[in-house]
Amino acid sequence: MSEILLDIRNLSVSVRESQYKKNILSKVNLQVKGQNILGLVGGSGSGKTTIGLSILRLLAPALKTEEGVILFKGNDLLKLSRKDMCPIRGKEISMVFQEPLYAFNPVFRVGDQIEEVLIYHEQMKRKERKGYVLNLLEKVGIPDPKRAMQSYSHQLSGGLRQRAMIAQAIAANPNLIIADEPTSNLDVTRQAQIMDLFRRLKTQLKLSILLVTHDLGMVKHLADEIAVIKDGTVVEQGETRQVFNRPSHLYTCKLLEALS
Ligand SMILES: Nc1ncnc2c1ncn2[C@@H]1O[C@H](COP(=O)(O)OP(=O)(O)OP(=O)(O)O)[C@@H](O)[C@H]1O
Ligand SMILES: [Mg+2]
Question: Which of 30, 81, 111, 166 is a plausible cystine mate for 149, CB 3.0–4.6 Å?
Fold first, then answer.
């Protein structure tokens, strides 16, 4: 059995709206194992993105972490200073979003933005970096990596843009990728291709992926484990096959019914 890479215990996050305080996450427990894909599924507004942002300590100022620990390789990320988080973001843990058009700056070339990650996290000479970026774009299955490198993000199709963002996310060899609805804006064929890519990268790069999605079908094919979240609480986590065959929570049964 692989060991636990990310261990979230009793994480509660609240938001203050005028004089009211509302819990967005309530005592969330979640574990991502090494070289595993964990599918995090749940309805809209259940707190999936908030979990991802909590891990990277990127919560909006209105949100407050009330309690809990987020152990990554045994260290509590919630106890790290802002400065100590910098080498973790992008280097150890990176994030892939739903809409890469917003993740890339429109006025810089895609290749240069991927290179930025290497400038920040890796010690490489300029020529070596350019070659490395080309190699990354090839690795994520972009057919004409030279062209993609020179392009601005709006010049790439949605599928290629998503691949380019994944190239950026893996640039510094992270252990964990948080992918928040990474295929929601793509058509079914592109979705399947990105799923294949994640599966391949998991093995090739010994990656763990926290895959946030509404899409149980995607999770069924891709994830080693599933966690189900409802109203800010993880109601069950287990091996994908086991959760699909023998869901232990009524809410999971309802989600599965909706799929069939
Ligand atoms: N900055 C904020 N201020 C106030 N409320 C917020 C803020 N960010 C999130 N919330 C609330 O927290 C809850 C959880 O939001 P979150 O974005 O984590 O849900 P989600 O599961 O990712 O939803 P979706 O599937 O629609 O992306 C929602 O009720 C949302 O309105
Ligand atoms: Mg979300």
Answer: 111
Q: How far apart are the first and last CA of the chain?
A: 31
- State whether the beta carbon of 58 lies less than 6 angstroms from ligand 1: no
Query: pTM of the predicted model, to two decimals?
Result: 0.94
Judged by its nearest atom, the ligand closest to the C-alpha of residue 51 is: 1
**In the prediction, which pLDDT does 100 show?**
67
- For residue 141, the Cα-to-chain-centroid distance in whole angstroms is 19
- Does residue 245's CB lie within 6 angstroms of at least one atom of ligand 1? no
Instruction: Write down the pLDDT at residue 160.
Output: 92
CA-nearest residue for atom 9, ligand 1, is 50
The model's pLDDT over 50-63, given as tens digits with 9 standing for 90+, comes to 999 999 999 999 99
Reported confidence tier of residue 191, pLDDT bands at 50, 70, 90: confident
Domain locations in the chain? 104-173
Q: Higher pLDDT residue, 184 or 11?
A: 11
Q: Is the CB of 48 under 6 A from ligand 1?
A: yes
Task: Give the single-character DSSP code of 34.
Answer: T
Contacts of 155 by beta carbon, 8 Å cutoff, 6+ apart? none
Q: Which of 25, 28, 40, 46 to mutate to test the pocket of ligand 1 (most atoms within 8 A of CB)?
A: 46
Between CA 254 and CA 251 the distance in angstroms is 5
Please, what's the b/e burial string for 136-163 (b: 16 or more CB within 10 A of its CB; e: otherwise)?
A: bbebbbbeebeebbebebeebeebbbbb
Calculate how far, in angstroms, residue 233's C-alpha sits from the geometric centre of ligand 2: 15
